[in-house]
Amino acid sequence: MKIKSAEFVMSNSDVAKCPKSRLPEYAFIGRSNVGKSSLINMLTSRKSLAKTSGRPGKTQLINHFLINNNWHLVDLPGYGYARVSKSSKKVFQKFITQYFGSREQLVTAFVLVDIRHTPQPIDLEFMQWLGENGIPFSIIFTKADKLRPQAIEKHVDDYKNILLETWVEVPNYFITSSSKDIGKDDVLGYIDGLNENMNLEAN
């Protein structure tokens, strides 16, 4: 897929105010400082479409971008949990939960994970939450330029081994580096294929 146009549409914290169009949406989410804004800018070949910051957690709103006039890229705030009680499940920020629960336009989510680190409980728990709620997702491992190939393979295998303890199969995943343009064609090609399948089904 070639990105011919990418433009900001809106930011808000009210899911009811998200775009009313029926265009397919692809949501990008991850922990703070995982490199989400840099990845979005890399995918769209725009240097400042998504604002990057040295201060983690800068994204606080649901940000919609219109890509090629036929699909929305959605930049979501970093997920977090708040413990209501010892017996209660951890919950996310209210409007993130509402987004995933109500946006029929959502085709799939992309969960960004920093490849440099061993599997983090918060990432694994978020993936588990998506699975339990029937929300399709792929994993995007970021910052692959920071590790040697052998280390990348080991860290991916670590995630696979943990996920397979509770999952029948490992979710689809991509290896990326925003600074080196690694994985760009793979991610965009995957989105393009999903869009084409939807068009075929619609016809």
UniProtKB/TrEMBL annotation:
- What does the protein in this record do? Necessary for normal cell division and for the maintenance of normal septation.
EngB-type G domain spans which residues?
Answer: 22-197
Which cofactors does it use?
Answer: Mg(2+)
User: Which SUPFAM superfamilies does UniProt cross-reference here?
Assistant: P-loop containing nucleoside triphosphate hydrolases
State if Cell cycle is listed as a keyword. Answer: yes
- Please give the family membership noted in the entry: Belongs to the TRAFAC class TrmE-Era-EngA-EngB-Septin-like GTPase superfamily. EngB GTPase family.
The record's HAMAP family line, in alphabetical order, gives:
GTPase_EngB
Mind listing the GO biological process terms from this record? division septum assembly
- What this protein is called in its record is Probable GTP-binding protein EngB
Which Gene3D superfamilies did the record assign? Answer: P-loop containing nucleotide triphosphate hydrolases
Keywords associated with the record: Cell cycle, Cell division, GTP-binding, Magnesium, Metal-binding, Nucleotide-binding, Septation
Species of the source: Algibacter amylolyticus
Which PROSITE patterns would you find in this protein's record? G_ENGB
**GO molecular-function annotation terms?**
GTP binding; metal ion binding
Matches recorded under Pfam families = MMR_HSR1 (PF01926)
